[in-house]
Amino acid sequence: MSAARLVATGFGLGYIPLAPGTWASLAAVAVGVLIHGLGSFPLLLLATLAVIAVAWWSISAALPEMGGGDPSEIVIDEVAGQWLALLAPSFGFWMMGLDSWRFPYPGWLGAFLAFRLFDIWKPWLIGRADRRGDAWGVLLDDLLAGIFAGILVMILAALAHGVLMR
Length: 166
Known about the structure:
Layout: H1 3-8, H2 20-65, H3 76-95, H4 105-121, H5 124-130, H6 135-163
Helix pairs in contact: 2-3, 2-4, 2-6, 3-4, 3-6, 4-6, 5-6
GO molecular function, one term: metal ion binding
Transmembrane segments: 12-34, 41-59, 79-98, 105-124, 144-164
Pfam family, one: PgpA
């Protein structure tokens, strides 16, 4: 197995027979929360940018040897998208000055659920990106799902903390 394929499949997570994207997203949340703990939002932002670059490289290199399309074994895109979704609560906690090891569960759980919702449902631009059928589409649909999920998490947090807490 090539290095690109190993990375693209999340070091084997993509070969889990049932819901490999969900397992990869769960692993991404765990590692993302750890990264936030080690360096808060700035470190998670840098890690997210790095994983996007690595995902682009690995998907572009591995996709031709995997037959094209969007194989379910490729899960590095889920990691990139999930970390984009995690950036929203991470930024909020960082701006509030919370201890970096404090990443309350509604934040990461909301980011996980919202990302999976948009990644599976694929509304609007997400679905359009997914239908591209090339390496850029494989990655872009998850990046857009992560952005949409982050926006949803911020809206829900604003409602919960602004409206419901009054």
